[in-house]
Amino acid sequence: xxxxxxxxxxxxxxxxxxxxxxxxxxxxxxxxxxxxxxxxxxxxxxxxxxxxxxxxxxxxxxxxxxxxxxxxxxxxxxxxxxxxxxxxxxxxxxxxxxxxxxxxxxxxxxxxxxxxxxxxxxxxxxxxxxxxxxxxxxxxxx
Length: 142
Prior knowledge:
The protein is mostly beta strands. The chain has helices at residues 55-64, 106-111; strands at 4-10, 15-18, 25-34, 46-54, 70-83, 89-102, 119-120. The protein has two helices and seven strands, in the order E-E-E-E-H-E-E-H-E. Strands 1-3-4-6-5 form a five-stranded mixed barrel.
């Protein structure tokens, strides 16, 4: 099983490009994900994880995600290699996003004038799609 769940802040605005073969949109960005534990006397460490989102999800990310915003990503890890023009082999590990969510508090979203609802992602049966919304904290069971 290959499943990744991340929550972090965007280190830059998503970058959009299109594939050469069939002109498919690809958005790429990086998430700073805090490590769980902090050593005494040290600052919190973060890992910087590359994310790619394809097609409609990539379009959503490029339109609504901005640098500094906290987001949640569900996807899978993918590795790939290629040789550059000088014959040097390059390796990259990235997360291919399958679902993407806003993770900032509602106050932070309102301060940023967010006009989109709280989630977007995979709309297959059993998953939370773009019509899922919690209107107030009174709706939460805890």
